[in-house]
């Protein structure tokens, strides 16, 4: 039985990384997806190691989807998420998202908060089953640690806000967080999201253009901060997503099948 309970389906299992080898496998998977596939720009050290890594990896928990049919080596890790609770961030002095967003409204909460990041799934496993396992793992982890709110940077592919104007405007007009919980992009990196008037948007069509992971957050009742941030290293335009855990616990059992179906990467 895994550390999150018995979370298996066929050959797939979702669990937390328990060894250094597990973590290293996740870093290698992230490199293949972000740098070799999605066009991110590695540092020389990353390119030499063929791994995506930073200082936060040493303090965070790493949620893994393992395919036991792939054997016992690093290739069995086919999906991952980096999970960082408030006590993790205290070791390094900040959350990763603080480089892009003023998290003051979130950090002012009395309850437990958790940052989600570095989500990816191997190209061979981008299907309903793998995404279903990731969501099951996140829900189990949030329940175990009594998390009240989750947040993190979600990405749109590309670095030209004009090309992404419809998607950014849709999130701004229809899914903006309440002011009391709304992070705002830091001033030096702030890019407006309100690029197209609400009445000029085709909401249904624009929703279909959103990345699968963002659509998944929306299915779980997620909402977004103010301002997008260009991340040239990762070749993305980032938005800050917030999800109240009670929405996941209430909706998860009813909706994770539909969410995973929508997450057809």
Structural summary, described in words:
It is a single chain. By secondary structure, the chain is an alpha+beta fold. It is built from 9 helices and 11 strands. Strand 1 and strand 2 form a beta hairpin. Helix 5 packs antiparallel against helix 9.
Concise structural overview:
The protein is an alpha+beta fold.
Count of DSSP strands: 11
**Major pleated sheet:** 9 strands, mixed
Strand content: 15-25%
Number of helices: 9
Q: What structural category characterises the helix and strand content?
A: alpha+beta
The N- and C-terminal alpha carbons lie at a distance of: 28 Å
Low-confidence stretches: 255-265
Shape: globular
* pLDDT averaged over residues: 90
Helix and strand succession? EEHHEEHEHEHEHEHHEEEH
Radius of gyration of CA atoms, rounded to a whole number: 18 Å
Bin the helical content: 25-40%
Layout: helices, strands, pairs:
Elements: E1 8-9, E2 12-16, H1 20-37, H2 44-49, E3 61-67, E4 77-85, H3 86-92, E5 101-102, H4 104-107, E6 112-121, H5 128-144, E7 147-157, H6 165-175, E8 184-185, H7 203-209, H8 212-219, E9 223-224, E10 229-231, E11 236-244, H9 245-262
Parallel strand pairs: 6-7
Antiparallel strand pairs: 1-2, 2-3, 3-4, 4-6, 5-8, 7-11, 9-11, 10-11
